[in-house]
Amino acid sequence: MKTFKKYTGLLSVMFIIGSLSAYSQTALAQQQYSLQDLPAQFNSPASFSFDSDNNILFTSPNLHNQTLVEQGVITKAEAPTIGLIDGNNQVSVWYTFKQQDLEPNSGVVTPMGIAKGPDGNIYIADMQLWFGGESRLLRVNIIDGEAIDVDVVAKGFSFPNAVAWRGNDVFISDTVLATEKGISTTSGVYKLSLDELSAENPLQISKYQNKNNHDAHLFETFDSNGSLGFGANGLAVDGKGNLYTGIMEDGTIYKSTFNEDSSKLETTLFNKGLITSDGIQWDAPSNALYITDLFDNAVYRIDMNGQAKLLTKNGNTNGSNNMLDAPGEVIVRDGIAYVTNFDAAFGASTMVNTKPDAPFTISVVPIK
User: Fold this and answer.
1) Which residues contact 216 (CB under 8 A, 6 or more apart)?
2) Total structural domains in the chain?
3) Which letter does DSSP use for residue 37 in this model?
4) Strands (E), 158-307
5) How far is CA 284 from CA 75, 100, 151, in A?
6) How many angstroms separate the CA atoms of 252 and 246, rounded?
7) Residue 246 neighbours by CB under 8 Å, 6+ apart
8) Is the Cβ–Cβ distance between 79 and 60 less than 8 Å?
9) Domain carrying residue 41
10) pLDDT at 94 over 50
């Protein structure tokens, strides 16, 4: 099987080049912004999580830096950032990644999935596959609600994407374990326990070789059609502790159930019919999953029987006027679905979005 490093053509428009010293370091922490008028520091909002105070945190890896600079939309590359949406829907900078946070070989950090752990700290998937570094699980240490610093607590993943907690176990989707364009993609989900995560001795994940030779923490593997080279993506855990994994290039969702000792019982197909399933979140009040279709500019609610209902969908836009613009993930708070407009453009015939552009936005959709 070819590795994903040999298949980057669709995504070359999103590469970051250079180290943090090349990023704009504008002091934005005390400013507030509307969801429809984000600064360039949020030029590719990606994934969501709640903090301990019901604020919404979101990652922005700013993968569109190079393209936006070339278009003249921004003047400098922006540092990867975590934003916060407060109860009044005002957005502020919660954390900007610093020089000491960068992966030492690549000189970059690429925050994708984000989730609050049972210890109150924030955990983030740092995807390094495209940049030559070692992909990591990061812990943002929190004191009194403030981000203090960042530790590496696990490393050795290929393409870590979503992060989801189930009790004291954390699940990380690995979107590309192996792929051969147009033939197949192998992806998976890792399961780590909280007591294995240490800044002093980060957990080392061994490189995936094949289905008979892999790290013991690999919880599940998936085979998909190879059309994009992207497999397991979004993750969510429902109120009964079931785990849901979206397989991006197949447009499917799988459900994993557990034994009493938290080992896997079985994994079965839960939903199919999307073009490219992306970020997933479960909402307790409505007892439903919410998922974006990145290519189709659409957001769906999926009930616990696997039945999908379209919430909103639109054609190619720049994300203004609350329209979707290559949506990456959706989270629900107080009956409102918040949607990151990741604004990726892969050049695929099935993808509605054609280019990253301004404005930089997060859309809202009432679900009641």
Assistant:
1) none
2) 1
3) S
4) 160-166, 169-180, 184-193, 203-204, 218-224, 232-237, 243-247, 252-258, 264-272, 277-283, 288-293, 298-302
5) 42, 37, 31
6) 6
7) 232, 233, 234, 235, 252, 253, 277, 278, 279, 280, 291
8) no
9) 4-366
10) yes
Q: Identify whether the C-beta of residue 190 lies closer than 8 Å to the C-beta of residue 157.
A: yes
The region, left, alpha or beta by phi > 0 then psi within -120 to 50, assigned to residue 166 is beta
Q: What is the pTM of this model?
A: 0.94
Quick one: average pLDDT of 33-59? 97
Query: Which secondary-structure segment (H or E) carries 71?
Result: helix 65-71
CATH (domain of 149) = 2.120.10.30
* DSSP track, 196-209: G--SSSPEEPPPP-
pLDDT tens readout for residues 123-182: 999 999 999 999 999 999 999 989 999 999 999 999 999 999 999 999 999 999 999 988
- Are 137 and 198 spatial neighbours (Cβ–Cβ below 8 Å)? no
3-state helix, strand, coil in the chain (%, to 5): 10, 45, 45
Residue 65 host element (H or E): helix 65-71
User: What pLDDT is recorded for position 7?
Assistant: 31
